[in-house]
Amino acid sequence: MSLRLDTGDAGFAKAFDALVDDRRESDAGVSRDVAAIIADVRARGDLALAELTAKFDRFDLDAQGWSIGLQECAAAYAALEPGLREALDLAAARIRAFHASQKPEDKDSIDATGARLGSRWSAVEAAGVYVPGGRAAYPSSVLMNAIPAKVAGVDRLVMVTPTPGGSVNPLVLAAAHIAGVDEIWRVGGAQAVAALAYGTGRIQPVDVITGPGNAWVAEAKRQLYGVVGIDMVAGPSEIVVVADAQNDPALIAADLLSQAEHDPTSQSILFTDDTGFADAVAAAVEAHLPTLATQATARESWATYGAIITVRDLDEAMPLVNRLAAEHLELAVDDPDALFAKVRHAGSVFLGRMTPEAIGDYVAGPNHVLPTGRRARFASGLSVLDFMKRTSFLQLNEGALDAIGPAAVALAGAEGLPAHALSVALRLDR
Amino acid sequence: MSLRLDTGDAGFAKAFDALVDDRRESDAGVSRDVAAIIADVRARGDLALAELTAKFDRFDLDAQGWSIGLQECAAAYAALEPGLREALDLAAARIRAFHASQKPEDKDSIDATGARLGSRWSAVEAAGVYVPGGRAAYPSSVLMNAIPAKVAGVDRLVMVTPTPGGSVNPLVLAAAHIAGVDEIWRVGGAQAVAALAYGTGRIQPVDVITGPGNAWVAEAKRQLYGVVGIDMVAGPSEIVVVADAQNDPALIAADLLSQAEHDPTSQSILFTDDTGFADAVAAAVEAHLPTLATQATARESWATYGAIITVRDLDEAMPLVNRLAAEHLELAVDDPDALFAKVRHAGSVFLGRMTPEAIGDYVAGPNHVLPTGRRARFASGLSVLDFMKRTSFLQLNEGALDAIGPAAVALAGAEGLPAHALSVALRLDR
Question: What are the domain boundaries of chain A?
């Protein structure tokens, strides 16, 4: 049974604080092991990669092959059941269109002094996408990571994925084909992230690494932040649903379970203004659970981290929603814009009764890689910007230099940097 | 004497590789100490802060005061020498205008299926700016970090700065006044970064931390990345100058020295197509050096990391320039746009003969916090975006759900996530 709170309860503030502060992310204590793996791959390259892959994935890279060919991906795509192929194609087309609209504009203008100022965006040359092996190998995740990179203009898109015992997921290969991945290497774990960051004999280094992974992969990305760019540190998935009593409890229950089934540490929270509806959703969750192949995971998540919070009215929920700064937020009401105007922190928002969060996981277009663990307070979902960088530029003519140069000389002098002052003063004295 | 290379030399490729790979950033080995300080501040809050500040800064927070009042900043501003006050005001106005032009636009549109899609930007609630004490306490750095935060719309802007032995830099306080800093705490080092990230009894936590610092500060930010947002990991400053023989060697020499004087590990590199000009710049560097109060630092940097590279023509320099991906790049030629079109990786570019890099450090408008150590391959200078985040949103009507919902059901089924499929299928069966 999940947590039940009411904002009118005497102990509500304290109980809600505990909910907000609850860290579902374990300090896995892998930091030292990951540092050793990174150092090993950096020093010994392919040799270290082969040894670590034999050890962790029971896979002999030299004997069984280091990479997966693009023709194998094309074949996996061609062999897809037609309905699934169309679904992946539709998802890819919509993701591509949404991310194309994110491409930033260059700026180039001249101000009143005659100074030309601007900024120019360009793509990174190479990006790496980590794709987990086994159960969590999701083709949707390949599309969500790889398509923004290609839309950004990345020249070389490298996928790494462990193939434990040699197994590959044909859906993942098909998605790599659709997304335009350029290389695929059969490596995983912290060693794969290290290989992408520093390069090895076989694998050329990349500039940015994205994609989900286990605690070792996440820690490797964290440790290599600065050597390469990475996407935001990711934790367990979460959803907050704000719903009035006009909703069908069975639908809202399914929405809550769609996060709970991801992982035992996932979190689903419902805010509603109607106690009877709260009871009905709780009952609907119990009714759905036995029908799900993911029952064990979903039940554990819901029992451990799930919560239903009753509020006097839905406006009262909104400051609480902002404190949770959830990855996913559903506003299942007739006029979602009124509530949405009060949302300051959320990864992605699903408006109205006909917008289940799962649509956003697959086919809507916006990215499903979103900030978790209250990081929506400062972080954004994955976008083309993660694969691009901005170069600012400046051009002065003599008039502009005369207008603003003396101030630079004064400030450089005050900061005790005489060569800075000299480089401007010599030009003023022309 | 700095390094001299010519692209025609037999050993050029190898020597240039070494220049590119040369890591001027020391692994300072402070990682464990910083982790201990962070854990201490997180556990003991103000008590730990007071002890660490007494130890490292010889400053008694409880007896001498934890914070610097805003009225003290206003007084420092009022007491500025008028020329300096005008220079700071001009710099602030130009920085504010440039960063205001960076504010991203929200998107909200409806596609062919009737699906509403968009994204909305918002500022983080609180940001922290680290300002070093002592020699490297630069008012320009306060402006460059604080103004973008305020332009972004940050509600609460917190400055932390160590005041060793009680000393404060009035220029820094004046800059804090101009920039609109809301709180100033007399703490520094890894302990100040930890206090900003986790909060203490006195200091409320922030969402993003930016600003330069020593190896301990940089490591603390790196370790706390994910708990808060941070700006890019920063290393020693650097400049690459591409100049033909039509330049005055004394000007180009001053430009090279304006980076060299920052730190013994700073780097200045000149590309030119004229050996005589190369010799003249080298001689001008030697002539300038004895005139500079920063001579010792500049001489050590130039001797250790400086380089002059002669090329057959300036176009030949451009792929080499891109490999260096420098923080600052000057294109000192008559037609800089032709060369600029070939620049893919650079933090900030200074076009033409009248645009010394130092102008950009102070008064031009673009940010002087820029990616170093080849990170311009994947990172950008500080901007309003570092203090904002994007929330994507989606709203389906029944028609849009019918159009794209079945594909989501198919993909959820293929990924083994039945509650995802259920949440969509129940709405399709309405």
Answer: 3-25+235-364, 31-230, 396-428
